[in-house]
Amino acid sequence: MATSQAVAPSAASNVSFSLIRLLSLPWLDRSIATIACIPLAWGAYYRYQHFHHGFPLIASVLNILILIVTMVIRRPPRRVTPNPWYWLLAFVASYWQILILGFLQAGQTLVSNRITTFLAALGLLVMVWARFSLGRNIGLVPAQRELVSSGAYAFMRHPVYTAVLLTNGAFLLRAFSPLNALLIGLGIFWFIPVKSLVEEDFLRADPEYADYMRRVRARWIPFVV
Predict the structure, then answer these.
(1) Distance separating alpha carbons of residues 136 and 71, to the nearest angstrom
(2) How far is CA 73 from the centre of its chain?
């Protein structure tokens, strides 16, 4: 019994290591990225066809299109999390906007359209800034590629999620209902406090990223939080 117990963890470790090496193959990584983008593209098309909330909707759709382009040309990872719960969380957070499409309501406008347009435009600018800063270092599941500490990432550790907060907030203010607030609020919750913390828990094992966390204290809003 003692021998079998000693062998089992080693076998599991070897399987995990082999899986990570397999997922790091460039052709397989980009194939997975392409397949993962299909639901996102459909979600963007669905929202464009069924919701008419002006620029907040356009900004949200453009965010998704930018994500798709950068995902398809992304750099293969050096290290991928083997934790199945991290994978599940990543997919729930990434596809939440698609899962709730059939439940969203037309809602009502709470503030001036100028305010929601400004928030959406700001979110789009932050998203473009963050995506150009990242270059090809992007993924849905926590993975280690090249560390980026310039551009938007010199001021906050998760500018993409900041953009998600702004564009979703603008959409909610343009189409408010209690149900929309619940669904969109949950989507923001998956991204902002949960997914960012999970990613950092994985990435801080790299001393270089741990040092980056010490240098850039803000997660989502520069110099604030």
Answers:
(1) 7
(2) 16
**What are the sequence ranges of the domains in the chain?**
2-215
Q: What is the CATH number of domain 2-215?
A: 1.20.120.1630
Q: How would you write the pLDDT of the chain (225 residues) with one tens digit per residue?
A: 444 444 455 555 565 556 667 666 777 777 888 888 888 888 878 877 777 667 777 777 787 788 888 888 888 888 888 888 888 888 898 899 889 988 988 889 999 989 999 999 999 899 999 988 988 888 888 888 889 999 999 999 999 999 989 988 998 999 999 999 999 999 989 888 888 989 999 999 999 999 999 999 999 998 887
Q: Which residue has the tokens 């983008």?
A: 37
Q: Are 136 and 142 in contact, with CB atoms under 8 Å apart?
A: no
Residues 6+ apart with CB under 8 A from 220: 156, 157, 158, 159, 161, 162, 165, 192, 196
At 88 the three-state DSSP class reads helix
Cα–Cα distance for residue pair 127/85, rounded to 1 Å:
27
pTM for this prediction? 0.80
